[in-house]
Amino acid sequence: MVKRLIQALENISAIDITGRGSDKLFDAAVIKVGGSPCEAALPSVRASLSKGGKAIIATGFTVIWAHKGETDGPPGAAVLAKQLEDVGVSGLVLTDEGNLKIVKSVLEAAEVTGFEPVSFAAAMDQARTESDRLLEEVQPAAMFAIERPGWNRHHVYHNMAGEDISKVCAPIDVIFDRAVRRGILTVGIGDGGNEIGMGNLRRAVRRFMPYGEICKCPCRGGIASSTKTSHVLVGGVSNWVAYTLAAGIAVSSGRVFHHDGEKEKRLLYAAIQAGAIDSSSAAPYPWVDGVPLEVNTKLVDMIYLLAKHGKD
């Protein structure tokens, strides 16, 4: 029952509603693990966090031409954090200085109390030192990246338009690389191929995504992220994938998944009020990647209802 439910949830979150090609990346993820990527990740996630402990979540993606963070990412991080709290996990949510206000606002709207929003170092030398410090202090059992930019093989960050956005990206890849070397469970969630974790699917990103192989900027290295994670989960919108993972944790742990369409509205409006924008229009709409509010909330309600009936 749980297996079929996870696959049903994943099929909803994998809908390529914007037509960007995320469905091809999802197919590549399925081929890589020989089945449902979310189902494959859940046992490791549950085993790592079975005794509570700490987790680190990274999010925040800045729309460079507007110099504002987007609505995709922080809501997913907040919902996952809330679900992790329900199984006794606390920790940090890492982001850039420019996205910190948005992350704080969304965590508050989701009534998350056990995860502290933290601005990660912007300079590379500081990022290395801070990564080691945080890993020692927090001792995370697991780490998650939700719609968090991942650098390419030249350590350059890009948006989907193939433009260099490195100046607005803190090098959070550093702490994920160090976590992998320490044997810490890491999960990357994305929808475009330029996020942390998409290094697992780099060949597919370079083949199928616009600017995947060759970007517009002088590095000419493409937008394909080179940062790998233990598991990578892909969908039409990164928030939806995070909700699916959170719902999977809830159902497989015998817990309740609480996030529905009304709560989704609350999170999106909290993000907008804190300065976030829809990445597609670069406007302060409570949309996500160009998906209108009413469509987005209906899809979230589908995830909620499936998880509810799975729990029942």
Radius of gyration, Cα only, in angstroms? 17 Å
* Helix percentage: 40-55%
Low-confidence stretches: none
Q: Main β-sheet: number of strands, strand sense, barrel status? A: 6 strands, parallel
Average pLDDT works out at 96
User: What's the tally of helices?
Assistant: 11
Silhouette: globular
Helices and strands, in order, run as: HHHEEEHEHEHEHEHEHHH
**Strand content bin:** 5-15%
- The order of strands across the largest sheet is 5-4-1-6-7-8
Based on helices, strands and strand pairing, what is the structural class? alpha/beta
Distance between the termini: 11 Å
Q: In total, how many beta strands? A: 8
Task: Give an overview of the whole structure.
- Helix 8 (202-208) links the parallel strand 7 and strand 8.
- Helix 1 (2-13) packs antiparallel against helix 11 and helix 5 packs antiparallel against helix 10.
- The chain has eleven helices and eight strands.
- The chain is of the alpha/beta class and 312 residues long.
- The chain has a six-stranded parallel β-sheet with strand order 5-4-1-6-7-8, sandwiched between helices. It has a two-stranded antiparallel sheet with strand order 2-3.
- It is globular.
Topology of this structure?
Blueprint: H1 2-13, H2 22-33, H3 37-48, E1 53-59, E2 62-63, E3 68-69, H4 74-86, E4 89-95, H5 100-109, E5 115-119, H6 124-138, E6 142-146, H7 173-181, E7 185-190, H8 202-208, E8 231-234, H9 238-252, H10 261-273, H11 293-311
Parallel strand pairs: 1-4, 1-6, 4-5, 6-7, 7-8
Antiparallel strand pairs: 2-3
Helix pairs in contact: 1-9, 1-11, 3-9, 4-5, 4-9, 5-10, 6-7, 9-11, 10-11
